[in-house]
UniProtKB/TrEMBL annotation:
<protein>
    <submittedName>
        <fullName>LysM peptidoglycan-binding domain-containing protein</fullName>
    </submittedName>
</protein>
<dbReference type="InterPro" id="IPR052196">
    <property type="entry name" value="Bact_Kbp"/>
</dbReference>
<keyword id="KW-0732">Signal</keyword>
<feature type="domain" description="LysM">
    <location>
        <begin position="37"/>
        <end position="86"/>
    </location>
</feature>
<dbReference type="InterPro" id="IPR018392">
    <property type="entry name" value="LysM"/>
</dbReference>
<dbReference type="InterPro" id="IPR036779">
    <property type="entry name" value="LysM_dom_sf"/>
</dbReference>
<dbReference type="Pfam" id="PF01476">
    <property type="entry name" value="LysM"/>
</dbReference>
<feature type="signal peptide">
    <location>
        <begin position="1"/>
        <end position="25"/>
    </location>
</feature>
Amino acid sequence: MKNFSTVSTRLLIAALFSGLTAASAAPVCRFRADAPDQHLVVKGDTLWDIAGTFLDKPWCWPTVWGMNRDEIANPHWIYPGQIIWFDRAAGRLRLGNPVVADGAAALGAERLQPRVRTEGLGRDAVPSIPPGVIEPFLTQPLIIEDDELKGAPRIVATQEGRVFLGKGDKAYVRGDLQGNTTFQVFRPGAALKDPVTQQIVGYEAFYLGTLKLQADGGDVHTFSVATASQEMGKGDQLRAVPPTPMQNYVPHPPQQAVDARVVAIYGGVTHAGQNQIVSINRGKLDGLDIGAVLQLYHAGRTVSDATAPKGWFGREQQVKLPDEEVGSLFIFRVFKHISYGLIMQVTAPVEVGDVAKSPE
């Protein structure tokens, strides 16, 4: 392996991939001092893990790969058996040909980049992050924004006056179905407040199961319970939401500067660690999309400076300590004003009110 000292350990990427706004300054992407010359892609790898093999900051992946915005949102697939090469002279990562029977591999003469297979597209492709961790969060209405509660269809009566419904039971629903026949059932939970403004930005939603339309009765519709993960009954609300597919966006900085706060930690706990889910008070209207990566910080405390001259009435000066970086957050589901993120790396527990902002 070549010694990494043959190239600068502080490679400054002069221009970000196309499509970033001027508000987002080009980040400094540094290769790891122990970066290998190559990496053989194996089953179980993720883009985040592979990037971390070469880079101090895995979210620098698109920059050193030379991706544009279309390639980030719709990445070509990388498969087990291919080789990621570190082109030290160019300061780029490149994709080699698949490994042949004797284990050798060769770089093609053309500009190499992740390629699309024509057979079994996506079946064995390397995902951005471990999909099993977030799959339940892609199909269930875990956050309901305020305007979605207004006018949502609701269960008004149950079969034979039962208190709770199970699979196969009938439910009677009022509300505008808007032509939909299959609904997810949820129960609004605790209000999610912006830690800064204290305004309600959404509600936690407890997913209860699914209903399927049996008869459209005009004012009152007859449904049957298709699935039931929890007991449902009168007052529970309906939402027609098609499952969100797993989108294999490449990890990347957001298109514009984002300064968010952690609103809630999934599961009602007070602290979160690696591979746990948090929600933040910024969404698609704030420039976030799937795959955006934010840095997590503990907000600096405000303390008294006993060493400084005292002010009026002997009061000590108040100073705010710097925010302390504690980890990184991968955004995987985006609503209008709020988003879900997976904590990828963390050096200290994440708390409600912590800062999540664009990488520096």
